[in-house]
Fold Guanylate kinase.
Amino acid sequence: MRRGILLYGPPAAGKDTITTALTELDARYVPFLRLKVGTGKTEGYRMGTPEQLAALEARGDVIYRNDRYGNIYVVDRPGLDQAMEGSRAPVVHLGQMAGMEQVTAFFPAHWARVLLWCSRETTARRSPQRGDTDTAARLAAWDATQADLAAHPRVQWELRVDTDATAPREAAQRIDDIVRTTSPRS
């Protein structure tokens, strides 16, 4: 059975850092590069065009789309299929519960759902440290993520990690333990 990890949390909660720690722990973990249509940061994305997005939408291959920071971010079926080749387990970053729901509903796999959290103050501090030029927008997204989480109190998380108090390698090891104990053996 195919498997993957869904990392949910506000901006600067450590999704990139913990994904790096996971890939160092086990080569089967791979970052899922969402399709991005827009401008700004290109690292960590597959950059696309409005025409590519329209073609994916016409084929029904858009699993989840969100518009934020003036860009469009897409989790797509062909991208996930490719990321899962060869028993790899993609690590998908999401900041909206709708994305969590759509990925688990429309892309069959064993998904380990992990909530990464940090304080708003930590986001305010980490955002400029990582090179963001739009920290105010990141804080607005933090607020939206907190409200989104509060609106979905019954979500079942395999793991919750407070990244203010947990080192990235420790978080990665805990996630790996969850994946190994809840996924069917290959």
Q: What stands out?
A: The mean pLDDT is 94. The CA atoms of residues 2 and 108 lie 8 Å apart.
